[in-house]
Amino acid sequence: MANYLLIPLLLLTLSALSPAMAAADGSNILQQQCASCHNLTGPAATKLASLWQRKGPDLFYAGNKYNQTWVEVWLQQPGRIRPTGMFYMDHIKAGPKRDMVDQSTLSEHMKLDAADARAVAKALATMKANSALIKDEKHDPDMAPGPLGEMMFDKIYGCMACHQIEPGYGGITGPEIYTAGKRLTPEFMLSYIRSPQAWDPKIWMPNKHVPDTNRQKLVNYIVELSKENFNE
Ligand code: HEC
Ligand code: HEC
Questions:
Q1: Which of 71, 100, 97, 87 is nearest to 168 (CA)?
Q2: What is the pLDDT of residues 21-35, one digit of tens each?
Q3: Structure confidence by residue, pLDDT tens digits, 87-125
Q4: Alpha helices in the chain (DSSP H)
């Protein structure tokens, strides 16, 4: 190719890489700033060792898991979701009576400004791996859990051994459940409770073989919990 053709081409390439343009590009931010901790391409860990070494939750199926608006807001003001981080053994120390969370080993999540958070949330919403797992899940918001909701979560299925149903109340080796209704799509929750290992083959959440009606009620119970305001 003659030089007079190459030079404009080079200029075009350079301008495409300029920081001003990259700032609005969600996929670019994900690659540059997030890929060191988050799995953006899949597959999920297939060995315990790699699960335990994970530095952040898998995001390659983010578009099927999270509510986009929640992602956008959280990235600007990230709060803790997993009381003991990604792997509880790394963040628990012996206390006088029982084990305690070693707060000094947990770090704060990076923050994004509004424009970047919006662009990243939009890019994450397009990442739809595992669609086959949710395509047949139909959420029925009218299947009211009533008092049975908490009973199932606590006693019948023992979910509370790992999940908090309000700040400071419940187990700490899984994500807090009282905000899950805001964070997650109901279809994802239905599918994850059906089979946690279908999403994450080595995760320590057990498959409790919850029948369909009770899965709907558990999800509606979780959605109800998220409507309470725990910040007051
Ligand atoms: C140093 C490692 C690290 C980097 C870098 C990082 N994250 Fe995270 N991220 C984490 C950890 C750890 C959590 C879990 C926080 C918790 O549970 O309290 C998390 C949680 C999240 C969540 C909530 C998802 C969920 O299921 O809890 C989103 C969304 C997210 N990160 C997006 C991003 C984006 C976008 C970037 C880049 C701009 C990024 N993260 C950079 C470690 C990281
Ligand atoms: C032995 C501990 C344990 C038990 C018992 C358990 N879970 Fe979990 N649960 C986990 C872990 C670990 C995760 C995934 C953690 C992650 O993504 O970092 C999880 C994830 C979830 C999620 C997705 C949450 C999120 O924020 O991404 C839901 C919903 C959920 N569990 C509901 C339940 C229900 C309902 C039960 C009872 C039928 C239950 N869990 C029992 C440990 C447990």
A1: 100
A2: 545 699 999 999 999
A3: 998 998 988 888 889 998 999 999 999 999 999 999 999
A4: 3-16, 19-22, 26-29, 48-52, 62-65, 68-76, 114-125, 131-134, 148-151, 180-183, 186-194, 196-199, 212-225
Structure tokens at 208: 């409790």
121 touches 72 (CB < 8 A):
yes
| Closest atom of ligand 2 to CA, residue 65 | 27
Of the candidates 200, 203, 202, 207, the residue with the CA atom closest to the CA atom of residue 42: 200
Name every protein residue with a CB atom under 6 angstroms from any ligand 1 atom: 29-30, 33-34, 36-38, 55-57, 71, 75, 80-82, 86, 109-110, 112, 120
User: What's the gap in Å between 124 CA and the centre of ligand 2?
Assistant: 22
Nearest CA to ligand 2 atom 28: 189
Nearest-5° angle of CA 134, CA 218, CA 88?
85
Ranges of each domain in the chain: 24-225
